[in-house]
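Researcher: Here's a chain I'd like modeled. Treat it as a single chain, no partners, no ligands.
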Amino acid sequence: NRIIHFTYNNSIDLNQTRSFSYNSKGYPETIEALENNNLSKKEIEYDSENRIVKLRTKSTDYGDKFTNIKEYEYTSIDENGNWTERKMTERIEGENEGVDAITETREIIYY
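Model: Modeled as a single isolated chain. Structure tokens:
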């Protein structure tokens, strides 16, 4: 079962509507969101191991249009095939400055 569309409203003026599409392997490929009249669309790319390698978010946030790009490089994989360290770079499309890079690490405890 997959979520295709949902709408959420609460008492503090937060209204969200999200729509999803999936690739042939069942992973989210696009997510369109409308939150308080701000529209965004996420496009997700995966590698051959079904790990996210690129997340492109096109947004019209408060009238400004921009595309945020996050790219992931997996630098450590454990014996079960799960990533334990990855490098993420983030930038605004069309801009050469302001590239941010961080390293994310996680510990997975198997039982």
